[in-house]
Specification:
351 residues; alpha/beta; Spore Coat Polysaccharide Biosynthesis Protein SpsA, Chain A; 6-stranded mixed sheet; 13% strand; binds manganese (II) ion
């Protein structure tokens, strides 16, 4: 065999191996409604911008509209419907004042994607800034420390191996022991309890899951290491899509707690306008429908501003709306127009 032929065979074998790895690895996220799907769409585009070699999977619950599912299908390789699992641990959730966290138990379904050998789960409120394909070299369960309690990992980014057996054990564990914080982070930390002590390779560097919120943030370090951040995580209640966006000057109104990350929030919105906005339409629920009405470079009408504000408030409060009936776009729009058109004296005598 000539050296050239041998080299060719080696190249072919390497390429075959790589192709197989690419098929067996996937990024996975979860969305439970149309508003969170905005995050999932921007996240997928951020992964593509970072030129990932791996597939993208999105888990959706029944709360995601048909129309939004079509948009998700355009950018995700696989869209998988899962049922909402509640922690039914109302006391713990109330303690956290985050009743919406119960839904994050749905995350456990990611272990059922057994067509893949290894996956990285990313919350849909994450934004990938640099290629992170090297994460697939890590083992289950690899994650970055949580800023509030660094002996716990943050469950917004983690490497895992899909397995029906693990899924079963996790759900049984959840039923038996609950979760110390009522959400998936407490549960996963209880289950993978040796994470903090046993294997340092399972500690991802913090740059793979940097929390954007200022009171959780070591600001001088944020400034110093900003260029090294690989994944920014908008943990907490304030999400980029909840920030008011000025379509005329193309900038979001960044709350004071986030000014250190203003350029990265601007990046989220730039990706949103480059890749997501034009594919939205007003039949979508919540903020997705409201944002579809934005026109860059144009000032919004009072009605549009009022509608946007209402949708942001709804999303903030995580209120359940009836998107097809009384709370549908057309009805809310009509109500807003009536309110804005009514003269001030109309309000006299009403509380
Ligand atoms: Mn999150």
């Amino acid at each position: 065999m000539t050296p050239t032929t041998w080299l060719d065979i080696q190249t072919i074998l390497t390429l075959m191996l790589l192709a197989q790895i690419h098929e067996n690895y996937a990024w996975v996220t979860l969305t439970t409604n149309d508003t969170y799907s905005l995050g999932a769409l921007v996240l997928a585009h951020s992964l593509k911008r970072a030129s990932t070699a791996y597939q993208l999977v999105v888990l959706v619950t029944p709360g995601v509209s048909e129309c939004m599912r079509h948009r998700l299908k355009e950018v995700y390789d696989i869209i998988q419907e899962v049922n909402v699992m509640n922690s039914q641990d109302a006391a713990n959730l109330a303690l956290l004042a985050r009743p919406e966290l119960g839904v994050t138990f749905t995350k456990l379904h990611c272990w059922r994607l057994v067509q893949f050998e290894k996956c990285v789960f990313l919350d849909s409120d994450a934004l990938v800034l640099k290629n992170c394909d090297e994460l697939f070299e890590r083992e289950e369960l690899s994650a970055a420390p949580d800023v509030s309690w660094p002996d716990c990992f943050n469950s917004g980014v983690f490497v895992y191996r899909p397995s029906l057996e693990t899924f079963d054990k996790l759900t049984k564990f959840a039923v038996e022991y609950g979760s110390f914080d009522g959400g998936d982070q407490g549960l996963l930390n209880q289950y993978f309890a040796d994470w903090a002590y046993v294997d340092i390779h399972k500690h991802l560097p913090f740059v793979y899951n940097v929390t954007a919120y200022a009171s959780y943030c070591y600001l001088p370090a944020f400034k110093h290491f900003k260029d090294k951040i690989k994944i920014l995580h908008f943990a907490g209640k304030m999400k980029p899509w909840l920030m008011h966006y000025n379509a005329q000057n193309k900038t979001p109104s960044v709350p004071s707690q986030y000014t250190h990350a203003a350029d990265l929030i601007q990046l989220w919105w730039n990706i949103f306008f480059d890749n997501v906005h034009q594919r939205l339409n007003r039949s979508m629920a919540g903020l997705a429908g409201a944002l579809s009405q934005l026109r860059l470079g144009e000032q919004r009408t009072d009605e549009q501003e009022a509608y946007d504000l209402l949708m942001r408030r709804q999303a903030w409060e995580a209120g359940q709306m009836d998107y097809t009936g009384l709370d549908s776009f057309d009805n809310i729009w009509k109500k807003i127009q009536e309110t804005l058109q009514s003269k001030p004296e109309d309000g006299i005598g009403t509380s």
